[in-house]
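Self-study notes.
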Amino acid sequence: YVVEEYFLKGTAQGYRKVGEAGPDAKWQAAPAETSPYATRIVVVRPADPKKFNGTAAVEWLNVTGGLDIGPDWSFTHRELMRSGYAWVGVSAQKVGVEGGASMAGPSTGALKKANPARYGTLNHPGDAYAFDIYSQAGQVVRNGNVLGPLKAKRLLALGESQSAIFMTTYVNAIDPLVKVYDGFFVHSRFGGAPGVDAARVAPQA
């Protein structure tokens, strides 16, 4: 396996809700403001293209502890590597990049704080843009060259705990608009989900 890191930058789309986000999961979103961003992704891929099974598992990295971690990679990496998957971790949320308040308290391990020389050029405009950043990361995995010589036939979206509640909103409201991922693994969700503007928690679906 080969491990590589890439910086991903562009303009991210925010979203606004259309109607109510009820418990039936029939949520509607529409484009809102945009903002420039620069984040990073980590790619773990088979070194031998013949070992690649065609599926890239793209994980929304968890920031509950105030820094990026990949719990689904930790839980599944033996099977992923044994079966020939590629794995991509996405720094989708602001706390993991910029720092600030997290569910566990003040962040001390955010990328820009942990290594300013390496990550000082990153810029995350806020979690309202996290959904589109995650979509763009998937598009780059499918259509870009971040997998080296590999070409992904399928993209599987992964999210655990706090990432899983964001993934719930993504599945309900964002995926119907963008259709980037082929399947979802929503893992250990603790109830509720943020609105499409990431500013509140909607009813559980």
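Second protein, same conventions, sequence then structure:
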Amino acid sequence: MLEKLREIEEKYNSLEERMQTPEVYTDPAAYAKLAKEQKEIAPVVEAYRKYTKLKADAEGALELMSDPDFKEMAQEEYEAAKAEMEKTEEE
């Protein structure tokens, strides 16, 4: 699943790059077509980016749990990130 989402994000980025080229930027029809396609996949890309950030946050919190000074705070951060990840997975 994550690989498929990564591919959709790459497509989103590719569309964004193409929209900035002079050939497309000066052609209203071509620009509108790409903008529509990008808009359709934008919610998926936003959810994927949110999920990957939460995953990185959870991994960082796991690393901090080994430090006694930060264990409690890291545990809270980890649990919050995991809960939000589950919610984002449902989206």
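Instructor comment on the second fold: The chain has a mean pLDDT of 90.
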